[in-house]
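A.,

Following up on our hallway conversation. Structure tokens first:
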């Protein structure tokens, strides 16, 4: 009887822990590390508020709903439903991943620039910081429709690379590159301020790059 009580107590405790774990694993909107107006005049407060609190929040909510449907489909071994959920998981999961990186690699304009090991790698692989910016800008501006331009790290070849991804396709899952810094070229990221002049937005965003965070991501990517 004592053993049964212990087992029941353990099972209940484990079950509660599992429930708590499930709740903790639910995707949430990350904290924005600055105020909405902190990136002005380069990115307006209006754009930041809509982009973060509406667009990113929608990706998070839709990702959670897609994962709940995926769990239900797996529980019933519904292979057709599992396959049908792949586009929603990719789109909303990518949107959450991409935007989480985007917010943390931006910061109020301080005049800071790439330095140290990151700058050395940029100069090795692109010749100069300006050359890297030109290549990343060109790739970002050239995205047809919506997508992202990326500075990524190729771990197998130990070098930095520029890449572009359509829609919300996540860089690492799509190309194998580890994302260091991305430029969101969906119109919701700039249209209210820059209208249809994407090159002006892409040029302006370099004024608010958090190069310290990009360098931190580069260090982690090499580990």
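Then the amino acids I'd put at each of the 223 positions:
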């Amino acid at each position: 009887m004592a053993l049964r009580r212990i087992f029941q107590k353990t099972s209940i405790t484990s079950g509660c822990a599992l429930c708590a774990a499930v709740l903790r694993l639910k995707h949430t909107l990350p904290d924005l590390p600055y105020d909405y107006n902190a990136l002005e005049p380069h990115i307006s407060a209006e754009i930041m508020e809509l982009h973060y609190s509406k667009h990113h929040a929608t990706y998070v909510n839709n990702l959670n709903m897609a994962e709940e449907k995926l769990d239900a489909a797996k529980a019933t071994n519904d292979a057709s439903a599992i396959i049908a959920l792949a586009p929603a998981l990719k789109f909303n999961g990518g949107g959450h991943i991409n935007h989480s990186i985007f917010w943390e690699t931006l910061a109020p304009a301080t005049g800071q620039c790439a330095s140290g090991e990151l700058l050395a790698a940029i100069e090795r692989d692109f010749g100069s910081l300006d050359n890297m910016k030109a290549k990343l800008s060109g790739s970002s501006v050239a995205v047809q429709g919506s997508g992202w331009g990326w500075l990524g790290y190729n771990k197998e070849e130990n070098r930095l690379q520029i890449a572009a991804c359509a829609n919300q396709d996540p860089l690492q899952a799509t190309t194998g590159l580890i994302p260091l810094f991305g430029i969101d070229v969906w119109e919701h990221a700039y249209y209210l301020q820059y209208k249809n002049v994407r090159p002006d937005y892409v040029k302006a965003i370099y004024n608010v790059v958090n190069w310290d965070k990009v360098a931190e991501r580069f260090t982690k990517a090499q580990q």
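Confidence is low (pLDDT under 50) at residues 1-24. Curious whether your intuition agrees with the design.

B.
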